[in-house]
Design goal:
The structure is a homotetramer.
Chain A (H helix, E strand, L loop, with lengths): L4 E2 L4 E6 L5 E7 L6 E2 L1 H11 L16 E3 L3 E3 L5 E3 L4 E6 L21 H8 L15 H11 L7 E9 L2 E2 L20 H16 L6 E8 L13 H10 L4 E6 L10 H4 L3 E3 L5 E3 L7 E2 L2 E2 L4 E7 L9 E4 L5 E4 L13 H23 L11
Antiparallel strand pairs in A: 1-2, 2-3, 3-8, 4-7, 5-8, 6-7, 9-10, 9-11, 11-17, 12-17, 13-14, 15-16, 18-19
Protein name (chains A, B, C, D): Chorismate synthase
GO biological process, one term (chains A, B, C, D): chorismate biosynthetic process
Keywords (chains A, B, C, D): Amino-acid biosynthesis, Aromatic amino acid biosynthesis, FAD, Flavoprotein, FMN, Lyase, NADP
């Protein structure tokens, strides 16, 4: 029971507002003996950091992460987790609170403002307070540590749709993801996205996106059949990212139109004594449990609700009003959601890896003898 | 931390296998003083019950629910919750275990069989054991009680797509949902679905579906901004239903192609002193918190993986094989997922209703004075 | 967050009232592949069962346990856990509800009656409803299965004080525990207890007791330094048993009068390469973590509050009254708390065993090389 | 499931080591709209702060607390909780790590050193790392905020025994608690304690203590009948404080020697329409639920295990050794445990206050009409 924690055995608790002194979090349950470097965590944060291209918010946050506890440092700076909680702290530097004065009284349509006021009876309106996507920086840092729990697992996120522009999967080149400011695996689509988003940005508008995250090397057996389903936990995790409105695993909504024959991922024995799946409609999860195939998840991010076009709204005093949201906002918040999606997948997998080790231990080796 | 529990303050734990003596569950945290009748719970179960039309499995389970604890009975049979855990028991009657002997050795593609064996090192293969959709009967019973926690809330599920047949939303008639065996709100689509599914069923195939659940009358303020998001919990809950591969809230994946202008749900003050939203792209949830608009969720169900067409697979001993799944199965398991989806939404809302009451209590009345 | 569950990875949820149709529970998180026989569980229940001597309540409950799920049966009846939840059911047979009619209106001093009414606004007064010690039967059954999670661990409870009669530790003979109806390890004290309790019983009075539970063979490393302390979880678990008012670990309250020198459990290396502790003031737990020494816990049980002597009280309508509690009650409820205490210790240890395996895995072998 | 969190709806997570850069914590679930001042939190910390008399460790920590999130500040400095997580940070200032170099290799008897090494396979030995009592500063800060959740509740801790010196309850004067460095309510006993502890301190030894915490004004109805028992949660909470070896509620272990007649807390109706209890053997809790009487808890603290007298031990490499613990330690750590005990009681009560409000809401007013 918690409002700001995520996970069970690998458990992340975050705190902090967009315009307070700092954001941060506590990772509870990180196994002892993991080795990592602070610059690995910082590197993950840098991928999500705002202000790196004209396509993201011009807020300039260095997002420098400090680790306050839970590690021992070797002479070369390598950190070793001790099993104690790892506290992460990121100081806020570039808060321009006056930018937000206009929205103190009126609710931004599509934003959490009204819901907050009705729920809590008060609200820190600066920068969206707790509902700001700034909190996701902590998720990214936690994800970098979660990845250390998962030996042999590679997690890659990619933007597969921006507004009306979808990638052509025939063009997929993983190396391309790091070459454009959109995490887009299709170079041609990325070029079109640049023009498209320039126009969106200049008009003060915004647009949505679809992100796909693939985890390769996930061992079979993670998850549980009923309420600890791996895919259910992934769905909850990805839907908890700001502005996400949909989540798919594997074939997703397209599976509704398939027949059982088409959707069956047939199997054959491989040369290495392991089964080979002949397709992956399931997205690596069957009955809530990983199969050893790549885990494939997609999520849809709605357009940023902070736009320059005037919208009709009401004030917190119950009066009709119009609102224009100035501030500094991402024209496509889905771009920076790519590393966040990767981090959430890493955290879910790390949690299930530890849960599996705890509950089941080491089951008999498959295949079973006759 | 739990593998078979769902929810926090309204917490449901289920048990039982498809072919064991019984399935059941425990509702922990049901507030005292709720009044309901056993036949209300039974009525909800009857909607999900197999064998009611030629379009669902011919397994004949009466699904008669017993309440073993947590209630006092008045003379007229009305039950009153006491605040103690409510235990539900449904005995299994029509298990024909020998139907399943063929699948003891070979894994059904698209089914949880292989993942189970690798995870646990053993498996109750009869009827799918714990991964059988039979467990969802308990969810439906729990949902009927969850609905009692939510005064003034109406939850309605409907099948909006079966295989390649989608409804025409212009034809939506809620009264129609109860008149056809598909929970379909479009009478014309329902007629086409009947023919379509007859063909699927006769060929031993199966097909997927999309279900939409709408909750009206949900008070604003349910949910939390970060990890207790109402929509994230709904996504996890719906994805935990057997065979679900995708979840959407409000505009869902379509929001990726929208601009911020299009996606903004503008507001005006209504005559009753409450705000009126001029659209509901958000599906009733902003920033993880309910807004008072109808909560709209959709989920995609893949085709049943148990089909009569031979599929390539492997055995638990690591040999190539072919498999045909006989047994008695639903040609479109999405149909019976409709009441299950309603139940999961009811459980999530009940949980958040109690959480909101606990954490926040009664906030100041909106709108706030100047 | 739960009101009727206990434990995390090995998680027990119970339900049922003293005078309802049945009591029972669900064990969630039992690892797969554990082998046990139903008569082992039944045997544990038989030790706690009422009506076995004149010193316990004359209610005649067979306490026959059924397992409804979570196991496969071999041909010889051996059960194998599958990793699915294990549901336990014990039907109530000998409820004489009319015995309790006198206490429907007046509160028994020292009993939960008043607190229930104020908390819930209603109450099932028959047999104490949910506050009856009858619920502990389910704990005992769960403890028998928990013990299977713990290879090489032996858990023994003993009554070390009844009313004013304390055992002489010089007389401790573990074999004696099973030979008298008090689970008393001192034969001479047991003889005196028999006379003493006969007098208490005949006068309609009741008396308290102290129970000690020792777990031998507990591996070092179970527990955690702060809020998952093994001793804190034991304290909470034992205090959750009906009528318990105090818990001690190791030296307990006597440690307050000791100096650091006296209380130090010095260490030497043993011949087997493991450290030998020269004393066990700590009761097997240091810093919240097991040391490998025997875990020693004690708890105090107050006298049964249901007595024949009239006591002053008030009614649920706010009037002064006198009350005599007839019914059938244990003159020393502490006796039957012995197997319950053992069960709670087993459940806590099983939970921490799985948590340690999950969070830490296999640490480097101690002692560490230079 | 968590190793460093405490509570459910009012949930505290702590982090930090004795000799790292900082300790701190996150309070998740604090209701919105609570008003408090930073100096109230600081004042609570100052009571626990080391180095204030010759009877506590001479480590000089200012223990200045910062609040990083979860509050809005009014112009006069009053903080208002927003419902978002409240992050607390206390920087470590006076770490003299070289003091601890001697204990890097050898285990201190009675300390967590050995258990840590065996559990985690590595250990931050400086200042005890995570097992240091320094973590309790965060508990005290959290307790100060928890107290704000509980209108009308007064929580008072007192030292009632130090080593062989117990107070005379006839001398109890609550005003005296703040007048001596021991939190002792008996002025005469306090004078003797000063001489006694001087001798202990000068000899490099240490001694244990017993602390009593009384909460007055606790509303009836907090807690739950089975595993959410108020007294079980108090027992777990108090046993989680460093060096605690025993916990009692109300009559505690003395109840074992009482008869049912003596132990019954009889009731009469008071003039204000509420029941008056004629005694409080129960310590304010019956059946796990608060009765409205003062909640009375006691806990025993063992002597500090860090002493100057050489003790036999082993090294982490498995060799026999002798050890003397220099560093700066409390001769009676029980003294500073007094405000920690108060804080834990405040946190448990706050958690149950919110849980009661969530699960039960507002039950019908007692007494009930005929």
């Amino acid at each position: 029971m918690s409002f700001n924690s995520f996970g069970h055995l690998f458990r992340v608790t975050t705190f902090g507002e967009s315009h307070g002194p700092a954001i941060g979090g506590v990772i509870d349950g990180c196994p002892p003996g993991l080795r990592f470097r602070l610059d690995e965590v910082q590197g993950a944060l840098d991928r999500r950091r705002p202000g790196q291209s004209r396509f993201t918010t011009q807020r300039r946050e260095p997002d420098e992460v400090k680790i306050l506890s839970g590690t021992l440092a070797e002479e070369d700076g390598t950190l070793i987790s001790t099993g104690a909680p790892i506290a992460l702290l990121i100081e806020n530097v570039d808060q321009r609170s006056k930018d937000y004065s206009a929205i103190a009284e009126s609710y931004r349509p599509g934003h959490a403002d009204y819901a907050y006021d009705v729920k809590y009876g008060l609200r820190d309106h600066r920068g969206g307070g707790r509902s700001s996507a700034r909190e996701t920086a902590v998720r990214v840092a936690a994800g970098a540590i979660a990845a250390k729990v998962l030996p042999g697992v590679t997690i890659t996120g990619a933007l597969v749709q921006m507004g009306e522009i979808a990638i052509d999967r025939a063009n997929w080149d993983s190396a391309e993801i790091g070459r454009n400011p959109f995490f887009c695996p299709d170079a041609q689509a990325a070029a079109r996205m640049a023009d498209y988003l320039d126009a969106i940005r200049k008009s003060g508008s915004s647009v949505g996106a679809v992100i796909e995250v693939v985890a390769e090397g996930v061992p079979p057996g993670l998850g549980a059949p009923i309420y600890g389903k791996l895919d259910a936990d992934l769905a909850g995790a990805l839907m908890s990212i700001n502005a996400v409105k949909g989540v798919e695993i594997g074939e997703g909504f397209a599976s509704a139109a398939l027949t059982g024959e088409d959707n069956a991922d047939e199997m054959r024995m491989g040369n290495d004594g392991r089964p080979v799946f002949l397709a992956n409609h399931a997205g690596g999860v069957l009955g809530g449990i990983s199969t050893g195939q790549p885990v494939v998840a997609r999520f849809a991010v709605k357009p940023t609700s902070s736009i320059l076009t005037p919208r009709r709204t009401v004030t917190r005093h119950g009066e009709d009003a119009e609102i224009v949201t100035k501030g500094r906002h991402d024209p496509c918040v889905g771009i920076r959601a790519v590393p966040v999606g990767e981090a959430m997948v890493a955290c879910v997998l790390a949690d299930h890896f530890l849960r599996q080790r705890g509950q089941v231990g080491t089951p008999p080796a498959w295949p079973f003898p006759r």
